[in-house]
Amino acid sequence: QSQDRVFNFAAGPAILPESVLKKAESELYIWRDSGMSVMEMSHRGKDFLSIIQKAESDLRTLLNISSDYAVLFLQGGATTQFAGIPLNLCKPEDPVDFVVTGSWGDKAFKEAQKYCKPSVIWSGKSEKYTKIPSFDALEQNPGAKYLHICANETIHGVEFKNYPTPNNKDGILIADMSSNFCSKPVDVSKFGVIYAGAQKNVGPSGVTIVIIRKDLIGNAQGITPVMLDFKIHAENNSLYNTPPCYGIYMCGLVFEDLLEQGGLQEFEKKNMKKAEILYNTIDESNGFYRCPVDKSVRSLMNVPFTLEKPDLESEFIKKAAEEKMVQLKGHRSVGGMRASIYNAMPLAGVEKLVAFMKDFLARHG
Ligand code: PLP
């Protein structure tokens, strides 16, 4: 990484690969032989069509997405899909199951209450969202339209390492993958819908990706706004209205980069290595640093930790920033620290953080 860039440990918007930013910079004013910037292009012209089609096809390659699934590039963030999914898949009286392992799952549940009849069949709230339930213990409603999970809870650092089998009549599992999207291979065929805001692993905020099994499209409630209707977007290849063109272009550059670097298996290995050295540093600090999350379900992407002496937190954050490691403050709802180590965080960034943490411990422990 260049000397003048910081190591950005933010949870999102988050660090992007430097090579991608440089490529975008080199094409900022003039994209290929178009004579204009991607920002200035018609979304219906052949140049932008080639950009969005390549982005989709590279994402399909990365995640091995079959033709049974539509890939939609939408707007409004994952939060918009908290409403979009029940509106598209449920009638108002339909029951739906939620496993709530953190704040994002809880928000998705609360939004769904407006459009269907969701129930929380398991919540980790009383244990401060540090666990994933045993799947045997889940009492799923066989009449539920779908089972919803948040694959990685960004604030709490809790990640599903495998996925529950939905018991509902159509066997539909839906996952918010905003904060671990494209961080590792996923068997898409296990899901009815996968959705993700782009601004962690794959691009700028504003783009929202929805991967949906095609047979689930076409049942939206009558009140569904046209902008939330998956059928409209699928029929129009995400070009019903003006899409977030530049953001989609940036996601495309990231997908290309992920493929060039060996695909998601490679990234999973790199992400495991980064997470391992960080969690080891926390666990080997004799309680000076602490991560409350169950070891077996700790996130590879978001690593929350606290200090035994909380009054040292601001000093920790300030000194780290002086060494160009920024955005280490935990989410305002949980406090402490959080290091987000998405795909684009180089191993060198985590090694530098770990060296800093050991030094900080030596001085204050
Ligand atoms: N879901 C998860 C897991 C998230 O981490 C976030 C956001 O930051 C969201 C949903 C909300 O995403 P957005 O801000 O794109 O609506």
TrEMBL record:
The keyword Plastid does not apply. It catalyses: 4-(phosphooxy)-L-threonine + 2-oxoglutarate = (R)-3-hydroxy-2-oxo-4-phosphooxybutanoate + L-glutamate; O-phospho-L-serine + 2-oxoglutarate = 3-phosphooxypyruvate + L-glutamate. Keywords: Amino-acid biosynthesis, Aminotransferase, Pyridoxal phosphate, Serine biosynthesis, Transferase. Pathway: Amino-acid biosynthesis; L-serine biosynthesis; L-serine from 3-phospho-D-glycerate: step 2/3. It is an enzyme of class 2 (transferase). Its cofactor is pyridoxal 5'-phosphate. Its EC number is 2.6.1.52. Residues 6-353 form the Aminotransferase class V domain. GO terms for molecular function: O-phospho-L-serine:2-oxoglutarate aminotransferase activity; pyridoxal phosphate binding. GO terms for cellular component: chloroplast stroma. Belongs to the class-V pyridoxal-phosphate-dependent aminotransferase family. SerC subfamily. This is Phosphoserine aminotransferase. The lineage of its organism: Eukaryota, Viridiplantae, Streptophyta, Embryophyta, Tracheophyta. The chain holds residues 69 to 433 of 433 of the full protein.
